[in-house]
Design a protein that fits this description.
alpha/beta, Metallo-beta-lactamase, Chain A, 16 strands, 18% helix, binds nickel (II) ion, binds manganese (II) ion
Length: 227
């Protein structure tokens, strides 16, 4: 299965006949290198929280592809108010559902999820991460989060690939992400959510050097790995 990093926290997973995009912040993402077909044929759009750098172009992508949006209940209500015809699967922290490509579990994240429109802020519920089973692989996207001891529970899930924020300021920094890897024990880990903005500068090589128990794969925006 092919996993592509699209810059910031945006990830594309292609497996079986499915094309799953997580946190599709593309149009205004300074790191995103546009290609012709990243957003063509998307079947699922997953949103970890309502901040603009994660909800991004979710509505547009879902509309163009008639894709299913998977997000928390509060964000689903906000999106329904934008376009009633959106196909949305609302869920919440701790919930696990079978979906056509496997299963989705919503995991806790230590962060905010306010949705901002016209200088007003609306309640976007609780932020989350996603634990996905896709075909025979288990993938974890942490979303935006600080380090939590809850991550230790994830080691039982035998995660093949984890996407973890390392940029600090709004999320874990490198040193806390190193501890997270120790808790989660993924096979492979890709650092995300760094160097997009001034406040989240981090060195992924520093992260790679400090992690000893997993294979750290540094992806530039547009790079893919096969797992
Ligand atoms: Ni955020
Ligand atoms: Mn963010």
């Amino acid at each position: 299965m092919k996993c592509t990093f699209l810059g910031h926290a945006a990830v594309l997973i292609e497996a079986l006949d499915y094309k799953i995009i997580i946190d599709p912040f593309l149009k205004h993402n300074p790191l995103y290198k546009k290609t012709d077909d990243d957003t063509v044929g998307i079947t699922h759009v997953l949103i970890t929280h309502a901040h603009g750098d994660h909800i991004g172009d979710a509505v547009e992508i879902a509309q163009q592809n008639n894709a299913v949006i998977i997000c928390n209940f509060e964000i689903s209500s906000i999106l329904k108010s934008i376009d009633k015809s959106l196909n949305i699967h609302p869920m919440h922290l701790g919930g696990r559902v079978p979906v056509d490509f496997g299963t989705v579990k919503m995991t806790p994240a230590l962060h905010g999820s306010g949705y901002i429109e016209n200088d007003m802020i609306y309640d976007g519920g609780s932020p989350c991460g996603f634990l996905l089973k896709v075909a025979d692989k288990t993938i974890y996207h942490a979303g935006d989060t600080g380090l939590t001891y809850d991550m230790k529970l994830l080691e039982n899930s035998l995660i093949d690939l984890a996407f973890l924020p390392i940029g600090g300021n709004y999320t874990m920094d490198v040193d806390d992400a190193v501890i997270a890897v120790d808790f989660i024990k993924p096979n492979k880990v890709v650092p995300i959510h760094y160097n997009t903005f001034d406040l989240i500068q981090a060195d992924p090589k520093d992260f790679k050097n400090k992690v000893s128990q997993a294979e750290v794969i540094i992806l530039d925006s547009g790079d893919s790995i096969d797992i």
